[in-house]
Amino acid sequence: MGRAYDLPADPTPTMFPSTQPMDVSDSWPPGPRPAAHRQPAVSAPADPTDTAAPEPGHTALSSLSPSLLQDLQRFDPASPQRELLEVLAAGIRHTQPLAIDLAWGASALTLSVFPLDRMLHCPLPLADFLAHDLSALQVRQVRPALMRPLADAQRAGTADAARYAPLGPLLWTIALRGARAALLPELAGQAAYRVAPGISLTGLDVPGTMAACITRLRRQTRNLADIAGWPGVGLERATRLLNALYLQSGLIVSRSHPAATIEGWTGYGS
Fold first, then answer.
1. pTM of model > 0.90
2. How does DSSP assign 70-139, residue by residue?
3. At residue 181, what are phi and psi to the nearest 5 degrees?
């Protein structure tokens, strides 16, 4: 587990605060954008069949908006690499299309995500991509997306529809099987959780134990310790489930509910 991220108590319940869309104009101060932060000129996309891994290096963040950069820096500042789930969560919060260069072993690809469209572009069929060892993925670079969302690409006559897919299954699967096994910062600390009414998990792979947790959380508000103590769950499964529900905008987070306590519980630490 990673570092603990304790947030101040909130007198009112909060429903998925960090994945609600932000006004993109709010991400920039008044006046022209600095040259380092302007959208780069569109160039030809990389050959999707090129599987040569990029040279190891630090995640490049200088071309991102200041607010998105600050959001990413909520995570461990000592680590030059970001986990994919962290980058996806930040991109969704700021509704900014991102190109995420990924590597695992000797393979590499660029994943483009379009939060407002709830779509992604992947050189591989999404099912093939998700069949890999997702915990081994390394984020090599994060930059503004050069690909267009599907609708724009179709209007321009450049769409390869087979390489576009809904964003929801990617978010769900990376939360359950990716490298991050700690709560996202906006969920950690003194909090209790409940599944939001009306959430649809159609098309998502929900293991039986987690399906039972979701059923209970539709009726009950519980903290992480309670959920981890349910039969067959444990701390890591509970943590991953909460992250996954949150990224589907399906989690109510309360810091004032009587169940919102971490007294006597050390599961939020390393």
1. no
2. HHHTTS-TT-SS--HHHHHHHHHHHT--EEEEEEETTEEEEEEEEGGGTEEE-SS-HHHHHTS-GGG-EE
3. -115, 15
Q: Quick one: tokens of 50? A: 């090129």
The answer to whether the beta carbons of residues 113 and 152 sit under 8 Å apart is no
Domain ranges of the chain: 21-177
Digit-coded pLDDT (tens) for 48-88: 444 444 444 444 555 676 667 666 666 555 554 568 998 99
The b/e string for 130-140 (b: 16+ C-beta within 10 A; e otherwise) is beeebeebbbb
Overall residue count recorded for the chain in this entry: 270
Say how many Å lie between the first and final Cα of the chain, rounded: 5
Report the C-alpha gap between 90 and 109 in whole angstroms. Answer: 20
**Better pLDDT: 248 or 49:** 248
- The first and second tokens of residue 52, run together, are 């040569």
The type of residue at 21 is P
pLDDT-based confidence at residue 96 (cuts at 50, 70, 90): confident
Backbone dihedral region of 234: left (phi > 0), alpha (psi from -120 to 50 degrees) or beta? left
β partners of residue 194? 252
